[in-house]
Amino acid sequence: MPPTPARLRVAAVGTGGIASGAHLAALRAHSDRTELVAAVDVDAARLAAFQDAAAAADMAGVEGFADLGAMLDAVRPDLVLVATPPALHREQTVQALKAGAWVLCEKPLCLSLEEYDEVAAAEEAAPGYASVVFQHRYGSGAVHARDLLTGGALGAPLVAHCQTTWYRDADYYSVPWRGRWATEGGGPTMGHGIHQYDLLLHLLGDWTEIHAMAARLVHDVESEDVSTALVRFANGAVATVVNSVLSPDEVSRLRIDCADATVELTHLYGHTNDAWTYTPRPGLDDDARVTTWRTPAADLPSSHAAQLGAVLDAYERGERPPGSGADARRTLEFAAALYKSAFTGRPVRAGEITDGDPFHRSMHGDRSAPALGGPQTAKEPQ
User: Fold this and answer.
1) Same domain membership, residue 184 and residue 127
2) Which of 280, 256, 259 is nearest to 202 (CA)?
3) Which of 210, 241, 255, 374 pairs as cysteine with 161 (C-beta 3.0–4.6 A)?
């Protein structure tokens, strides 16, 4: 790898709300290490608005492009931020990798395990890496909880609950690519709950078996609007996972009951240290130990800025960034297994979805799956 420049030259692909909000804020937080030099969007008005927002955030001089290839040829950025609709992620990530850039891509990195393996192959032939935005891993509360869990400080993990119960109305699904297998890859399992169960996997490690159900109960879309799963982990823990866009009282929640304590996270779209609670088991009388649980070494909210910092650190060290490679593939495999179990009505084990399996090619199993249940008229996958 060539010497690391004083400031990485960054390009943004897709300039909508997440780019102009979270990604610009992240770049501003790391302005001593990054320089936003280019942006790409097919919508000229949206691109111009992003350039104005960048200038207002002290990032003037961002060159605009309508075509990713033209930008890569002209600018040769060190890092590309991909914030386009999901169906474009795989192609744009591979294109940026082939141009020699690192990539930080919004979730999901791609729409199937087959597409993920294409990204992995592009990584093998390129100098850079592709990392997925899973920002909830990177707040200090999550870092602290993972250290406690993996180090055994809370005792063995036993029972867990992972809840993403959000609310989305019909207007939300009026955006053409939402709720469609070919353009979003699925419903709340892929587009909403993936953040929370990625954090669950980050905290508990490898999963081994999943039993799931999914349904389309309210929205007139192709994919599910709710899914549930029972999960077994390699360490013996068992968990429930719920992903919903039908829940008026919105919350994101993780709870892990260990032999010596319960750790719980309650938030919505991001967490601080205060969102984490630790409850010792009855009879545990060790104030010093409990104080250690409740006292993270840092106070950093989960955010795109927190994850970008981790990616920049990896770039400077010339090593694979977190949230990439096999680590990120595990989360996508979890989603594929949840869908396969829901559609086939049987448990799915980790590692069983391989090349040739219809659920390796697409989350709905290439039309092999039966229609989802619910009061709406069932639609065939497109």
Assistant:
1) no
2) 256
3) 255
> Hey, how many other C-beta atoms are within 10 angstroms of the C-beta on 280?
17
On the question of pLDDT at 110 being above 60, the answer is: yes
Sheet holding 226-233, edge to edge: 276-280, 261-267, 246-258, 157-167, 238-244, 226-233, 207-215, 348-349
Q: Quick one: tokens of 278?
A: 């630790």
Residues 6+ apart with CB under 8 A from 310: 138, 321, 322, 323
Cα separation, 365 vs 353, whole angstroms = 11
Full domain range(s) for residue 102: 8-134
The stretch 219-246 carries a mean pLDDT of 97
The answer for residues whose C-beta is within 8 angstroms of residue 83's C-beta and 6 or more apart is 12, 13, 14, 15, 16, 18, 19, 23, 106
Residues of the chain with pLDDT > 70: what percent?
Answer: 95
> At residue 192, what is the residue type?
H
Q: Kindly state whether residues 15 and 152 are assigned to the same domain.
A: no
Average pLDDT of the chain, as a whole number: 95
The pLDDT-based confidence of 3 (bands split at 50, 70, 90) is: very low
pLDDT of residue 33: 98
Per DSSP, 115 falls in state: H
Which sign, positive or negative, has the C-alpha torsion 193, 195, 198, 200?
negative
Mean pLDDT value of segment 174-187: 95
Same domain as 102, residue 151? no
User: In the chain, what is the straight-line distance between the N-terminal and C-terminal CA atoms, in Å?
Assistant: 42
**300 and 345, same structural domain?**
yes
End residue of a domain, out of 134, 161, 189: 134
Which CATH number does the domain housing residue 348 bear? 3.30.360.10
In a domain, 378, yes or no: no
The candidate with the shortest Cα–Cα distance to 27, out of 65, 45, 53, 1, is: 53
Residue from 119, 271, 120, 143 nearest 202 by CA: 143
Taking residues 203-209, what's their average pLDDT?
Answer: 98
Res. 98: pLDDT tops 70 = yes
Nearest-angstrom CA–CA distance, 55 and 304: 19
Cα separation, 348 vs 7, whole angstroms: 45
